[in-house]
Design goal:
Layout lengths: L1 E8 L8 E7 L9 H17 L5 E7 L2 E8 L2 E8 L4 H19 L15 H9 L5 H4 L6 H7 L5 H13 L7
Antiparallel strand pairs: 1-2, 1-5, 3-4, 4-5
GO cellular component, one term: membrane
Pfam families: Longin, Synaptobrevin
Protein name: VAMP-like protein YKT62
Length: about 180
């Protein structure tokens, strides 16, 4: 899952990076936590961006999140993903974000002096487009995993029984 994507202008002399674009999906956090989470994302992005040398990639773990950073000659893309998001996919996405940013804005980022608050639609689209799908979203409409397990020739009878028992034992309460 991707929580946030940012594009920053990172200064080689060590001053704080400037945020050029920012898109976040904090819907999985509590309503009252969301402003603090957004502020924390900005803080961590500036810190990691500042410490990522030009033409380098790095990944930093923070609790259950991975913060991936790619600095391309001072233009830096940052991604906040959960620890299950593949690293190679994360850096591929960051590279694509930087390519699209340069296509859209050219070299105008070099003259930026302050954070930009306008949204960049591509970043919002990328945030939703590159989310990992759950098994439910892959199944056809009306199709259930239970029926696929029953029909599968890949699963032995013991595995099918294990699946059904595990599923029934994981149910909290059921009314007959």
């Amino acid at each position: 899952m991707i929580t946030s994507l940012l594009v920053l202008k990172c200064h080689p002399e060590g001053s704080d990076p400037i945020i050029l674009a920012n898109a976040s999906d904090v819907s999985h956090f509590g309503f009252f936590q969301r402003p603090s989470v957004r502020e924390f994302i900005v803080f961590v992005s500036r810190t990691v961006g500042k410490r990522t040398p030009p033409d380098q990639r790095q990944s930093v773990q923070h609790e259950e999140y991975m913060v991936h950073s790619y600095n391309r000659n001072g233009l830096c893309a940052i991604g906040f993903m959960d620890s299950h998001y593949p690293v190679r996919s994360a850096f591929s996405l960051l590279n694509q974000v930087l390519d699209e940013y340069q296509k859209s804005f050219g070299e105008s980022w070099r003259t930026a002096e302050a954070d930009r608050t306008q949204t960049w639609p591509y970043l919002d689209e990328a945030l939703t487009k590159f989310q990992h799908k759950t098994i439910d979203s892959v199944l056809a409409r009306g199709e259930k995993l239970d029926s696929l397990v029953e029909k599968s020739s890949d699963l032995s009878a013991a595995s099918q029984m294990f699946y059904s028992r595990a599923k029934s034992s994981n149910q909290c309460c059921s009314i007959l």
